[in-house]
Amino acid sequence: MPLTATGIYAAALRLIDVDGVEALTMRKLATALDANPMSLYHHVANKHAVLRGVARMVGTQFRTVALEDAPWQERIRLLATDFRTLAHSHPKLMGYSFSHQADFIQPEDPFLVALTAILDAAGVPHSELPQFTALGGVVITGVVTAELNGALHRWSSLKPPTVGEDGLTPPSSDVRVFRLTLDTIIMGLESQLGAEGDFQGADH
Amino acid sequence: MPLTATGIYAAALRLIDVDGVEALTMRKLATALDANPMSLYHHVANKHAVLRGVARMVGTQFRTVALEDAPWQERIRLLATDFRTLAHSHPKLMGYSFSHQADFIQPEDPFLVALTAILDAAGVPHSELPQFTALGGVVITGVVTAELNGALHRWSSLKPPTVGEDGLTPPSSDVRVFRLTLDTIIMGLESQLGAEGDFQGADH
DNA sequence: ACCTGAACACCGTTCAAGT
DNA sequence: ACCTGAACACCGTTCAAGT
Questions:
Q1: pLDDT above 90: percentage of residues in chain A
Q2: At a CB cut-off of 8 Å and minimum separation 6, what does A141 contact?
Q3: Mean pLDDT by 10 residues, chain B (204 residues)
Q4: How far is the CA of B144 from the C1' of C10 (A)?
Q5: SS (H, E, C) A15-74
Q6: Which protein residues, judged by their CB atom, are less than 7 Å from any atom of strand C?
Q7: If both were cysteines, with which of A82, A108, A194, B192 could A64 make a disulfide (CB 3.0 to 4.6 Å apart)?
Q8: Quick one: which residue's CA is nearest to D1's C1'?
């Protein structure tokens, strides 16, 4: 089969899933496609474009259900969980994309659009929406990134301070800390929104 | 002057501050030190060790004042601000370290030790301390990383949803979103801690 | 103990030449 | 239009040889 940009991205994704982004090489990518290394350059501009293409290809798969009738707390939880699921489907790629491709999540991407809509429904004043969207995006991507690169696991496996006891805490799963972070930020948002924090977008 | 490990780290840091981690090369590092590229390998194991050494060198500089009498909310704010200041002193290195060196922040590092102590003083039960420490670490490093790589700025510059007006929002500085995130997570923690959330560690 | 030249096994990418 | 061989300008690192 002939070379195509999407075919190249798909092959690159397979290699990345196995060996990580750092190990990806134009030459290895070519042999995986049974092609001459130089042939790739007829379909992609350079290696950076390959990585951008792969990230975009996976990022496009992100979908979250609307669920407009549910309370905003529930909707934000679902959005974050859907995002986490996508990240875990290609952890090596996503860990790279979050940190290296600052533009991986674009303003018009479904993730940020949905987040903005939810915060709007929650009653965040329009003038504050961008800041609250950024806040939500930071916390969600932050906790997922920390889970992907292992920091979340290491930090939550600390022994309780200097109590000098056995020092072993029952292993707290990453998903538990993920949920705790989500709950905490939601509670913080409720406080920020004051009394009308439980507004549920009644009939709209 | 003769080559030393710390001298190599210092030179590497200077190069990184200017051109970023990706542009750092053992050969460039050697010429910056007026040395033969191969001479470096007598003092450092390899390039990865150089990056680890530089990160450790900068990370060691992190200091935060104790301030044990202040309310925990104030202490956590100060800790996060000190951390942000350190990150901004070498943004290129820190942006790299947070994402690539999952072990950049070690359990016994002052940052996590202080964070644990503050959350302990705030009244977080001992059994939950590791999870809350991870949560705090994730949010603080997450928002600072997003600021360093520009995501925070881009996301907070979004136009308010589909109101179709001018579409221009006054530029909201990164530090404003940083503070908003901090305030929100602190409020969330207060909610999680319930009524005793305003415990201030009275006389201890 | 410390340095170094040559060399190895790679990279990404350009370009002229092929079909 | 698409492919490709050769080549360029780099990499990190090994190793034997020097002082």
A1: 78
A2: A83, A98, A105, B142, B146, B151
A3: 92 98 98 97 98 96 89 97 97 94 90 96 95 98 96 84 50 90 98 62 34
A4: 36
A5: HHHHHCCCCCCHHHHHHHCCCCHHHHHHCCCCHHHHHHHHHHHHHHCCCCCCCCCCCHHH
A6: A 24-28, 37-38, 41, 46-48; B 2-3, 35-36, 38-39, 41-43
A7: A82
A8: A42
